[in-house]
Design brief:
Layout: H1 5-34, H2 45-64, H3 68-91, H4 98-114, H5 118-133, H6 135-144, H7 147-166, H8 182-206, H9 212-237, H10 242-267, H11 269-296, H12 314-338, H13 340-351, H14 355-365, H15 374-399, H16 402-425
Length: 426
Amino acid sequence: MAADPDQLDLFYRFGAALLIGLLVGLQREYAHLQHEHEEQSFGGTRTFALLGLLGCTAAFLAEQMDSVFVFVTIVAIVGGLIMIAYVSTARKGSIGMTTEAAAVATMLTGAICFQGELAIAAALGVATTVLLELKLQTRTLVRNITRADVYATLTFAVITLIILPVLPSRSYGPPPFDVLVPYNIWLMVVFISGISFLGYLLIKIVGAKRGVGLTGLLGGLASSTAVTLSFAQRSREITGLERPFAMAILLAWSVMFVRVMIEVAVINQALFHIVWIPLSAALVVCAAYCIYLYRIQSTGKQVEQDKFKNPFEIGPALTFGLIYAVILLAANAARLYLGNTGIYLSSIASGLADVDAITLSLAELSQDARNLDLQTASRGIVLAAVSNTLVKGGIVLGMGSMMLRKIILPGLLATLATAIGVVFIL
């Protein structure tokens, strides 16, 4: 006899609740074994697996009996047992309640499994496990943050969750002013600030003590120009580390190419399918030269961690919004009155100061082929990236030591030649 589909679905739901409980329980038990000097938590693998099943069972019985009080009663009973366990451990001096909170979350996730929302339940289970495992990293982050970091985080939350939703989402004025939509402009401010903010948090969590290369890689998420300026200056003060400095700078530039591709992919998928080819080619050349420098550099000496300032402040954010709006307006006007030549000129000029603003502007404009064709937008973005890279190359050539200039020049020229050559050949 074939199995009842409804019964099979029910088994899947209970099975998902069991697996999520096992996942969280394995992390809790492993964490306890790694820190045997700490007080033992009340739950391990089996306990959390049972909690997941209890949550699913409570939701099942509540539906069968058509009474939500059944679910509330079961949860209250289990919650009482968890509270007793917490009081017991608190009396021994352990006042943390991470495991107890994880237990409640696991039980509620089991209830979500019964509702058939397995994707959400799985995401919650994984998120719970990740949060439990990131204890050391979160403590490191808290120790490294400053009052300015807290203020910047709250400000970012305000511009994202309070200001953005209330802005009008329609344009004002005739062409070329019809591209100025307040909501879209502010959304780009949130987007680019979020990327820089994420890079800064990664630096705070991971740190740069693992080497100069990691500093360049993570620093490039926050500001590739800042990385270039920092290591160019330090190359004059510290001799013998020119190759690691060059590698860090080139890694930061590589991250810039990745940032541009991510920005285009989020705004305009059709444009991304074109622009990724020249940008990826430049990225590969730049990364290959980094690998070459890594293989021949001395590995014995490390450099102290660089101090990166929080990249998000309300002043720079407003400035970026203004720059983005001006560039969007200028690019649209250049398209209307100068054609493709105007787009290329505005891309080169904009890239001298900031590649993100012109990238987002051209990606926005080219969403409608009647405004800007994809090929022209792609070339404009690559020209902006090339222009921006030239500026950072000029920083190295102007401020770096003689040895740093000699080392980085081949990588700079190869990267620029590849980007320009590929985009205009295709």
